[in-house]
Structure formats: structure tokens, C-alpha cells
Amino acid sequence: MRCTSLSLIAVATLSIAGCYSPGELIQKGPTYAAQTKKSPKQYALCVFPQWQEARPDATLSETENGYRLLSGNDMNTNEILQVSKSASGSDVKFYQRSYLDFGAGKATSLESTKSCL
After folding, report:
1. pTM of the model
2. Potential cystine with 20: which of 7, 25, 56, 70 (Cβ 3.0-4.6 Å)?
3. What is the DSSP string of 24-68?
4. Distance between CA atoms of residues 104 and 29, nearest Å
5. Distance (Å, rounded) from C-alpha 94 to C-alpha 111?
6. Helices 40-54 and 105-115 meet at what angle, rounded to 10?
7. DSSP-assigned beta bridge partners for residue 84
């Protein structure tokens, strides 16, 4: 009985610890950052279809100075990609939460972020 209780507590803790809102994920700092000579729109339109294929919940939105890609939802964000206009093209910041993910989406998001540079 005690072993079962401890297992349930561990699973509940992991479930809660893995949830991030977009703001909380950004506060943790980027997992990957880079620059590209592409405009924010060119870069975002390269990455977004790849994200959609791996993560059907992916969304693209325009920001004041670029674009933002997000997979997940407001209560459980998986990845965020912020693309901002810079003097030489775009600054790219990729945020990814640490969690147990057995699907291909986690790796694909970072791979496509790098391949479109």
C-alpha cells in the first residue's frame, strides 16, 4: 500500500512539474539561440510547416517585431520560437520544456529550428 501511495505521489509531482505557461517557459531562458540573415517572416514560414507536421497544435502569430511559434496551449506549453527582426536579419530564440516525450515532435521542433537558419 505504501509503495502504491509513493508511486501516485511521484506521478502527480511529475505531472505538475512539467506544466509551463508561455511566460514561465521564457523565464527559464532559451534552449537554443541563433541569428539568421532571413527576415522574420521568411524564417517563420520555413519553420512553421515543419512544426505543424510534428505538432498539430502548433500556432504562428505575428508580434510587434517578428513572429512567435508555439506548440501546446496556455497551460501546458511545449515549445516556443521567438523570431525578432535584427539589423542583419533575425534573432532566433527557441524555448523547450524538459519533460518525458516519447513522440518525434520534441526533436523535430529543434531540428527544424536549426535547419531553416
Report:
1. 0.77
2. 25
3. HHHHT--SEEEEESS-HHHHHHHHHHHHHHH-TT-EEEEETTEEE
4. 23
5. 11
6. 160
7. 66, 91
Distance of alpha carbon 68 from alpha carbon 50, whole angstroms: 14
Query: What is the pLDDT tens value at each position of the chain, 117 positions in all?
Result: 555 544 444 444 444 445 667 777 788 899 999 999 999 999 999 999 999 998 888 999 999 999 999 998 666 788 999 999 999 999 999 998 876 555 556 778 889 999 999
- Domain span at residue 78 reads 20-115
C-alpha to C-alpha distance for 37 and 17, rounded to whole angstroms: 37
7 inside domain: no
Cβ–Cβ < 8 Å for 82, 92:
yes
